[in-house]
Specification:
By secondary structure, the protein is of the alpha/beta class. Helices cover 30% and strands 27% of the residues.
Length: 406
């Protein structure tokens, strides 16, 4: 989307929400006419999750970020609450359909045709991504197979029995389903899955993780996707450029700024992704700081996020002067095929931060091999200990492998 079109979309959004939305009006005041995109970024303040949480605490239960009366809203969802109290979010039918249109772009880009059998390996719950993915697939003309409430073993059997061709889940859970299939003696060569769309964590754009998933699922094509409950489906993988996500600029005005700062990051740099949805006027967000780190560039298809989501700004740890992201550790771990589940323990010795890994593996050489691989990757010695199989937790949704010991 060209800058002139984005400017017009922002003007239309502000014209709709400023007279009706108390949250936005109090933050922007007598805003007047929006002159250009630079005017938008200089005059409109950032919005953070803390801002939204404070507003909902002051105006329970839904806050004042509502452009219409509550009776006009038809959908409720909430954030996961992994870093703070969950945010309650409402959508009208119109804003919900806007979200679904964005999701359908993912299916088209992934080559999912109408009539395809799509299995949704998640519990649904109050999370936006689950419901929008499901309903968008139904609108796309797919046969939608929900896996809510089933055990992992039951889900694997259902995937095979119903000849699902497309699987949706987190990268971690794609590997977990393959692990369960081995435990249950289920041959995944009987699976019809040819495409796996993953989201919820960075693994979908990490080559080593993609390779593990592809190998476990008979060479299925792994497609990454990025979205947030707060803003909706944001970016999808271009099939021509594996491991690169493209922002839907027709739907989002995106900025990349210094992590923890306010200034833009030049092309090729790593920064925090800031998003303004252009079509979700019922629950608008202006310059929302996602906390997600990306390396950005521009190509023929627009704004590209190379390597997908690198990690979160608050997840990075500094170990003896080396910046380490969880996604970078995951990439190294997945080079050792014999390592199953793992956990990273973050501890502190005085002012020093230290890492240590626990791994599950049937190979008694895996720990030593992984130690060498981590040393080669980070020029640090990170101790690795092998523990009994089945000791570590398994994850259906976002993996929580990093444990911080205080």
């Amino acid at each position: 989307m060209d800058p002139a079109s984005q400017l017009e979309a922002l003007r239309a959004l502000l014209a709709e929400i400023l007279p009706r939305n108390r949250f936005v009006a109090q933050r922007l005041g007598d805003f007047g006419k929006l002159r250009d995109l630079a005017d938008f970024t200089s005059r409109v303040p950032f919005t953070t999750k803390a801002d939204l949480a404070a507003d909902q605490a002051a105006h329970p239960p839904y806050g004042s970020n509502l452009t219409f009366p509550v009776a006009a809203y038809t959908r409720f969802c909430q954030t996961s609450g992994t870093t703070a109290r969950p945010l309650a979010i409402l959508d009208t039918n119109e804003s919900w359909q806007w979200l679904l249109r964005n999701w359908r772009l993912r299916y088209t880009a992934a080559g999912v045709a109408p009539g395809a059998r799509v299995y949704f390996a998640f519990s649904f719950g109050p999370f936006l991504g689950f419901w929008t993915a499901f309903e968008a697939a139904a609108q796309h003309g797919c046969l939608c197979l929900p896996g809510g409430g089933q055990s992992s073993a039951a889900r694997v059997r259902a995937i095979i029995e119903h000849r699902a061709e497309v699987l949706l889940c987190t990268p971690t859970y794609a590997l977990r389903l393959a692990e369960v299939a081995r435990e249950e003696g289920i041959d995944l060569h009987a699976s019809s899955v040819r495409t796996i769309i993953v989201a919820g964590e960075p693994g979908g754009s990490i080559p080593q993780v993609r390779a593990r998933i592809r190998d476990a699922w008979n060479g299925a094509h792994v497609v990454d996707h990025y979205g947030l409950t707060e803003v909706g489906p944001v970016a999808y993988e271009n099939p021509v450029r594996e491991g690169v996500l493209h922002v839907v600029e027709e739907s989002y005005f995106a900025e990349i700024i210094e992590p923890g700062g306010t200034q833009p990051v030049p092309e090729g740099g790593i920064g925090e992704l800031v998003l303004t949805p252009l079509g979700r006027s019922a629950w608008p967000l202006l310059r929302y700081r996602t906390g997600d780190l990306v390396k950005w560039s521009r190509d023929a298809d627009g704004l590209a996020l190379e390597g997908g989501i690198i990690g979160r700004a608050d997840d990075m740890v500094v170990v003896r002067g080396v910046n380490i992201y969880p996604s970078a550790v995951d990439a190294v771990v997945r080079t050792i095929a014999e390592v199953g589940e793992y956990r990273v323990e973050v501890s502190h010795r005085g002012e020093m931060t230290e890492l240590a890994l626990q791994i599950e593996s049937s190979d008694d050489t895996a720990a030593a091999r992984l130690t060498r691989a981590l040393t080669a990757a980070f020029t640090l010695r990170i101790p690795v200990v092998r523990i009994a199989a089945g000791t570590l937790p398994r994850f259906e949704m976002k993996a929580r492998r990093w444990v911080r010991n205080t």
